[in-house]
């Protein structure tokens, strides 16, 4: 057996290898999808994950054909130094392969406890697997250990010290429990790093509904409570991954569309509560629809191929859909920052400097600037604005910011009232007026109001929210878990997201509850994947929600700073959406054209609907940054049924809806191989049940699973 091994091949050395050594052979996931990693530390952060050539002078002969979606045939090697294959042996050798123990003898011991098990059915050779000219081994391929699967992930590329394995990158993985004090610290850090995603949505929608500073503080406290409760439920009885639940940006556009509906424009008195009850009714109906989608097993069907190879959820579909969510709010971001440029620009520059230029600086083993880019940028710019306010930079003689603009007679004050409103930090009374103790409770705004047309809009958006969550489940599981979840576990997570969104509707957060897309970036940056840490952090969030001053403090963040932070958050969301292309052949002209058309029409078609029938002097009562969300009153779709007009004009004016439908149609009608289209690889149910590590990662606690073993489509 030893005579068949190439003599020129040195024994594997310590990990990470020297720069001139060959990269690690691809794992089983990489063999199925054709992924070829490049180990270059931080420079890989922007890698799309496509099949790419090695950065070596000698190019291998078996490079894949990106247009055809398959690997070119490789001739028999003539040089004595063969090309390494996925199992670590020479590819194309005529002698039989050595025994697996001989190949693994010198590799570093990187296996975690009980992480190896039976080979799942999904790892069998198929269309996604790279072609090989060498003889097929007689026995089933060895299941790679967890450290080898780390090449599948975007988060590994963040490590600047050289890519080694998943163990060397992550401080704590899914089932790790380092102790109460570290877990509490890391859990709070995890939520603090996602502060912008948790609290910025109510700071946008509540003022749009006519709410005052007290309403903003109350909704922020409600969001903190619901986010903590739903995160605990998802961690225990849903996907069981360390993913924070909260008010997703996916629900922001339909919420603004409902808020700016024609029937609400003339409301006077308690406008906030009336619109909130309308939102609650729409969210509850859409959440029930999402729960049925998950628990009925329909989500499992959508993940698998069936008639005509139709797939609703593919990387080529998910990527432009989520990117369109972030790009759709361009009319809100910088136009509000421009209200006070000296504060807004400083806020944006600070976040960019911390997250990009200072990201490699480590203090006590923590990349403080990268992890806390948003909170640090907010704190510094807020302090600078406070000093400018106290120094009298925004004081104008005879002008009072508390007087409505319509009642101001002086032309001098009219000229400066906008600057005083947006630049001063003492205009909000939320912190002073908020109580120390306030417990959010269900139906605190009144009984929900149900309207079919608004519920239909939210139901369509809940499908896109589910698509967003699928991408987050897949990316995070490859980093922190032993294997990706089964389609049943994924359906269980989507179903529970629907139930938790019902809670959000009952408590009145203004939006549905969903898995925040920024989870993947946060896990990569903090290197914290412990499920227990997220649960402890969720408990801390619940405690903070009953302290009224916390909600009042967050509600007092100046509007310009909120807009500046949202510019960064929405840009991150768009980038995270596009990063899903690494699971497909991003260099294929087919995928490039599909994604490009999806994004272009996602911006252009809604622009047509939003501008149709608008005269320059119409709707003057609606701010310019909310103009895209009043399309229901003037859209081009006009039939004799008012409800149909509302649904069609509203849905076709949403960027993410257009991107989703264009990508689904093109991806399922344009011919392309599985490798070219890309697929999310999920664990096989039977193989996962036989493997102890996968069972411990995803089985429900307290032996709840044994009561639901007959429900095969929502479990292991």
Automatic annotation (TrEMBL):
Residues 11-26 have a biased composition (Pro residues). The chain crosses the membrane at residues 216-234, 279-303, 312-330, 336-357, 369-388, 536-554, 560-579, 591-609, 646-666. It is a multi-pass membrane protein. The keyword Membrane applies. InterPro entries: NCS2. Residues 1-163 are annotated as: Disordered. This is Nucleobase-ascorbate transporter 12 isoform X1. It comes from Rhodamnia argentea. The lineage of its organism: Eukaryota, Viridiplantae, Streptophyta, Embryophyta, Tracheophyta. The gene is LOC115735374.
């Amino acid at each position: 057996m030893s005579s068949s091994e190439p003599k020129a091949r040195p024994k594997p050395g310590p990990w990470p290898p020297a720069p001139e050594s060959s990269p690690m052979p691809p794992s089983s996931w990489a063999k199925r999808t054709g992924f070829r990693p490049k180990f270059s530390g931080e420079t890989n952060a922007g890698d799309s994950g496509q099949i790419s050539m090695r950065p070596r002078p000698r190019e291998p002969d078996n490079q894949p054909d990106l247009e055809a979606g398959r690997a070119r045939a490789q001739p028999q090697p003539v040089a004595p130094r063969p090309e390494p294959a996925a199992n670590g042996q020479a590819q194309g050798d005529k002698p039989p392969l050595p025994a697996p123990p001989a190949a693994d003898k010198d590799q570093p011991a990187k296996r975690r406890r009980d992480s190896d098990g039976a080979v799942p059915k999904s790892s069998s050779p198929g269309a996604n697997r790279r072609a090989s000219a060498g003889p097929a081994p007689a026995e089933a391929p060895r299941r790679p250990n967890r450290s080898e699967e780390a090449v599948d992930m975007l988060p590994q590329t963040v490590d600047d010290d050289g890519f080694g394995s998943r163990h060397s990158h992550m401080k704590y993985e899914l089932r790790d429990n380092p102790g109460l004090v570290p877990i509490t610290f890391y859990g709070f850090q995890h939520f603090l790093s996602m502060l912008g995603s948790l609290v910025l949505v109510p700071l946008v929608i509540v003022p749009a509904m006519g709410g005052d500073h007290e309403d903003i503080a109350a909704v922020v406290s409600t969001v903190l409570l619901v986010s903590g409760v739903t995160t605990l439920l998802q961690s225990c009885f849903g996907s069981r991954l360390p993913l924070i639940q909260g008010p997703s940006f996916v629900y922001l556009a339909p919420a603004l569309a409902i808020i700016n509906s024609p029937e609400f424009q003339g409301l006077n008195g308690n406008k906030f509560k009336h619109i909130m009850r309308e939102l609650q009714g729409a969210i509850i109906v859409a959440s029930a629809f999402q729960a049925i989608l998950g628990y009925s097993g329909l989500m499992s069907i959508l993940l698998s191929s069936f008639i005509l190879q139709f797939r609703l959820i593919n990387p080529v579909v998910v990527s432009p859909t989520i990117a369109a969510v972030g790009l759709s709010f361009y009319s809100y971001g910088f136009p509000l920052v421009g209200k006070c440029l000296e504060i807004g620009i400083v806020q944006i520059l600070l976040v960019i400097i911390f997250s990009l230029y200072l990201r490699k600086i480590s203090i006590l083993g923590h990349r403080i600037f990268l992890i806390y880019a948003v909170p640090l940028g907010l704190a510094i710019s807020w302090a600078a604005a406070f000093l400018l306010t106290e120094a009298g930079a925004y004081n104008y003689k005879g002008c009072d910011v508390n007087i409505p603009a319509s009642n101001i007679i002086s032309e001098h004050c009219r000229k400066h009232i906008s600057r005083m409103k947006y630049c001063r930090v003492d205009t909000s009374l939320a912190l002073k007026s908020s109580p120390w103790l306030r417990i959010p409770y269900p139906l605190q705004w009144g009984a929900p109001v149900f309207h079919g047309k608004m519920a239909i809009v939210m139901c369509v958006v809940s499908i896109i929210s589910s698509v967003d969550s699928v991408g987050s489940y897949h990316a995070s599981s490859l980093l922190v878990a032993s294997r990706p979840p089964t389609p049943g576990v994924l359906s269980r997570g989507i179903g529970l997201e629907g139930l938790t969104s019902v809670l959000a509707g009952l408590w009145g957060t203004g939006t549905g509850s969903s898995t925040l897309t920024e989870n993947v970036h946060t896990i990569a940056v903090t290197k914290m994947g412990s499920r227990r840490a997220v649960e402890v952090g969720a408990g801390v969030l619940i405690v903070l929600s009953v302290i009224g001053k916390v909600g009042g403090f967050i509600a007092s963040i100046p509007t310009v700073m909120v807009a500046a932070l949202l510019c960064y958050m929405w840009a991150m969301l768009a980038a995270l959406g596009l990063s899903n292309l690494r699971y497909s052949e991003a260099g294929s002209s087919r995928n490039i054209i599909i994604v490009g058309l999806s994004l272009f029409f996602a911006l252009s078609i809604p622009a047509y609907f939003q501008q149709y029938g608008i005269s320059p002097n119409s709707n003057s009562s609606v701010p310019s940054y909310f103009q895209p969300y009043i399309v229901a009153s003037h859209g081009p779709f006009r039939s004799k049924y008012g409800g149909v007009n509302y649904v069609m004009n509203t849905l076709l004016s949403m960027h993410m809806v257009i991107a989703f439908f264009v990508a689904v149609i093109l991806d399922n009608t344009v011919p392309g191989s599985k490798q070219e289209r890309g697929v999310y690889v999920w664990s096989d149910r039977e193989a996962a049940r036989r493997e102890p590590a996968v069972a411990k990662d995803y089985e429900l606690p307290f032996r709840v699973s044994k009561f639901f073993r007959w429900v095969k489509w929502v479990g292991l």
